[in-house]
Amino acid sequence: MDLTPVQRRSIPDDVFEQLLGGLVDGGVAPGETLLSERRMAEALGVSRPAVREALGRIAAMGLVDIRQGGATVVNDLRRHGGLDLLPRLLVRSGEIDPAVAHSILEARLWNGPKVAELAAQRAPESTADALDSTVDALAVADDPVARQRIALDFWDLVVDGADSITFRLMFNTLRTAYEPMLDALAVVMAAEVNESDRYRAIVEAVRRREPDGAYAAAHALLEPATTLLGEALAAARDASVEEL
Q1: Fewest beta carbons within 10 Å, which of 15, 46, 63, 79?
Q2: For the CA atoms of 172, 174, 177, 183, what is the dihedral angle to 10 degrees?
Q3: Known Pfam families for this protein (predicted)?
């Protein structure tokens, strides 16, 4: 992992961001040992307490083990990481990772219908009216990025209606990861956000307390964009193989 001197030496957050970036970008392989606190502090140009605090935060995320004697061993983030890493995995060096982007849409495809089903069972009566207003805004919006933002607001209301803290925290993370992709995914997501009638179908199922109908309507809404992105990724991979 390459280290560069930190400019804001009084703020351990800078140390944390640089170390975490190196781990997420694969600069150090699982099982390898990081530099000692002393050598790391020298390379970064900061104090050892600043390094120690940053390493403690990274250890709390499960990405490293700080062992007796001070050795810091890198863990496999696929085995030990949490959803909080998703936004960092999605955008690396300013570029969106297509495979991570696809995995986010896959997660939506499976989680979204279940959330809609729960909302049809649990949401207060006012939820359907709030959803209707959001779909009204979606139907008249003409900017593709604005449409995606309104769609996120729609799902925010559905998640509230589902009344599940686990789905709420998952949605928060997925939204944070998805928002940087809005411009890049505008064309693909048109297959979803331009279909206001499909959003209406979810609203009506929630209003009528029809969990199965809400599930089916949500799947019908979310599946096209997931399929399109999957096909685009497959085509990109095939093109790369042909170039080789």
Answers
A1: 79
A2: -110
A3: FCD, GntR
| Cβ atoms of 129 and 86 closer than 8 Å | no
Beta strands at 72-74 and 91-92: parallel, antiparallel or unpaired = unpaired
Share of residues in the chain with pLDDT > 70 (%)? 92
Identify the CA nearest to 118 among candidates 218, 193, 199: 218
Mean pLDDT of 203-224: 97
pLDDT at 9: 45
- Whole-prediction pTM: 0.80
Contact 161, 119 (CB under 8 A): yes
Identify the structural domains of the chain with CATH numbers, from first to last: 12-81 (1.10.10.10), 85-243 (1.20.120.530)
Alpha helices for 61-185 (secondary structure H): 77-80, 86-90, 98-122, 126-140, 144-162, 165-178
Q: Which helix (H) or strand (E) holds 215?
A: helix 211-243
Residue 240 predicted with pLDDT over 90: no
pLDDT in tens, 21-74: 888 887 788 999 999 999 999 998 888 998 999 999 999 999 999 888 778 999
**Short-list 131, 121, 133, CA closest to 208:** 121
10 Å CB burial of residue 155 (0-12, 13-18, 19+) is buried
Q: Which two tokens stand for residue 61?
A: 């995320």
